[in-house]
Write the structure tokens for this entry.
Amino acid sequence: MLKNFEEFQKAGKDNMDSCLKQMGTVSKGLQAIATEFTDYSKKSFEDGSAALEKLFGAKTLETAMEVQSTYAKSAYEGFVAQATKFGELYTDLAKESYKPFEGMMASVTPAK
């Protein structure tokens, strides 16, 4: 009986350790995503402000259309690149947060 209690206690400790590792991994991953989002937002705002200044400085309609077209193209390309990067960050977060539980599933044996 005492052996079963010790095994139960060890399993509980191992599960708690795995959960704490997973929480730390998720925290780091979400922090990286938040940092990346902040950097992208700042860059996007700066690029938009620069394009607006160029637009106000345009002397002709043709120049204004060229500035607008160039900004729209670069903004779209930047968004697509950033969306891809966010996808990779979320995929890495999912993979890393699952790692602490991989060993737990291998150690579970069916009761006889």
Summary: The first helix runs from residue 2 to 57.
